[in-house]
Amino acid sequence: MKIPVKTSPKIDPIPQDSHHAICYGVLDLGSHYKEGQWAGVKHEVLILFELPNQRIEIEKDGEKVNLPRAQSQTYTYSMSDRANLRKDLQTWRGKNFTDLEAADFDLKGLLGSNCILHVLHRTSKSTGNIYASIESITKLMPGMDKKTPENPTVYFSFDNGIDSIPETAPPWVIEKIKSSDEYSYIMDARSGADGTLEPSENGEDESLGDENADVPF
User: Fold this and answer.
1) Which terminus of the chain is more solvent-facing, meaning fewer CB atoms within 10 Å of its CB: N or C?
2) For residues 79 and 66, what is the distance between their CA atoms, to the nearest angstrom?
3) Any residues with CB less than 8 A from the CB of 118 and at least 6 apart, and which?
4) 5 inside domain
């Protein structure tokens, strides 16, 4: 008895270039053990972007729809002066953070913000596959029109409780959140407590900041 292997159609990576992009997702992935040279437990955050000028046709609810392609970037959960997250946010907004500003910055403010993603191709050491990598993020050039995201915005923070994981987040993101140390701790505490935790608000957020600001953060 031979069973065929189902494979997804191969999709070429985002082209190497500078792309207009909009942030539509900010999600705390929690802490996970990482192998490699710097092995250890690392807390990570994911930022999702859609590229309105790069389109893809997919089937959704039985119909074909044309949507912007998406690109994501995972960062260590840190705003230290050496952290890649802080470096990218500084080039995005066009100015440095003071340490006080960095410590007080709320990533939720990124939702709906426009930017330019500078994308290059890299080769995976484990698989040999070519993938698109965000090398840097900058603000829009003067005269470029701001756009609003076509995808529903998604946001998650463990501060809002695990019931706030947005159902519209990519399945692999939801799976990674649920495999984190933080999620396990909360579930263990919940199973040992009387009753259940109160549900939090849904992770989707329609507030997209000040559209008149060049970079609303």
Assistant:
1) N
2) 36
3) 18, 134, 135, 136, 137, 138
4) no
pLDDT in tens, 12-43: 999 999 999 999 999 999 999 988 777 899 99
Alpha helices in 179-212 (DSSP H): 181-191
Q: HSE on the CB side for 104, CA within 13 Å? A: 6
Q: Give 108-138 pLDDT, tens digit per residue.
A: 999 999 999 999 999 998 899 999 999 999 9
What is the SS3 assignment for 170? Answer: coil
43-96 pLDDT, tens digit each: 999 999 999 999 999 888 889 999 999 999 999 999 999 999 999 999 999 999
**Residue 209 lies inside a defined structural domain of this protein:** no
Q: How far apart are CA 178 and CA 176, in angstroms?
A: 5
The burial of 215, by beta-carbon neighbours within 10 Å (0-12 exposed, 13-18 middle, 19 or more buried), is given as: buried
Q: How far is CA 66 from CA 52, 71, 150, 151, in A?
A: 10, 16, 10, 11
Q: Are 45 and 74 in contact (CB under 8 A)?
A: yes
In a domain, 127, yes or no: yes
Domain count, the chain: 1
Q: Helix (H, G, I), strand (E, B), or coil: what is residue 93?
A: helix
Domain that holds residue 66: 17-191
